[in-house]
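Predict structure. Chain length: 323.
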Amino acid sequence: MKCDPVLHVAVGVLRNDRGQVLIAKRPLHAHQGGLWEFPGGKIRPGEDVQAALRRELREELGIELRTARPLIRIPHVYAEHRVLLDVWHSRDYSGIPWGREGQAVKWEAPQALRAGDFPAANRPIIHAAGLPSVYAISDEPDTGIEAYLSQLERVLAAGIRLVQLRAKTLDAQTYRETARRAAALCRAHHAQLLLNAPPEWVAPAGAAGVHLTTRRLMALTRRPLDTGLWVAASCHSREEVVHACGIGVDFIVAGPVLATLSHPGAPTLGWVGLQGLTEAATVPVYALGGLSVGDLDTAFHCGAQGIAAISSLWNTPPSVAPD
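Prediction complete.
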């Protein structure tokens, strides 16, 4: 049976100085007409993706794209055809966007975007647009809970807005109380806390979601929380990535990419292996393992959302600018 060719589309997630992203309404006569989408269009034969994106943004919005970085690549199969969305993120453009083709355009906060207003292929872009480029994972609370929460305050003050509470040495009662206090701290800083714990602990703590260990992930046959909460998962292989995407997680942490002091001699993915997992995923992927903010550009070009780390983000939090 002959397969239809894949429609390769360049897409831009444009952000303004308020952190909002630009969306445009599809014409009523078009496929999926009347829905909102991120701007962009088909890549012409012989055209590279950045050239296509610059051309499309100029034609659709009257702006000149200066620089952009990879955000996510999304293959999707509609009943009518297959598409590959090649999505790039930028704050660096000139001009004021407007609907040159008569389409409605507007700026929206990423958290205000509703998946039902977009074509299905655009929905992982909503998640990528709403996630920061760094994901801090807490170390164990060896010096006590108060010191632990003080360290969380320092992490949040540095500008980090996504944190995983990973504290395997705590008993269940202490973890749940710590999670409740940590979630309140994160809310005060407009940050989000994910619990590395049973999913049913999330709602009582007021946390933003759950981070599934690989063991918890592979034991599940469906998403464990409603779509209003984040579900993330740790993955180390293509099989685990495919399973995570199949049950509907929102993002993945893949690793270890490089060697770490905590697991000397453990096998690593390397950058090539990371890229293989990002290409297998249909959701954002954070790179984990021996990484720091200095590795962000390499992670981006391997298709990752950004980096996740304990040592370089939790223990010695850098000052992080908004995405």
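Summary: The longest strand covers residues 64-77.
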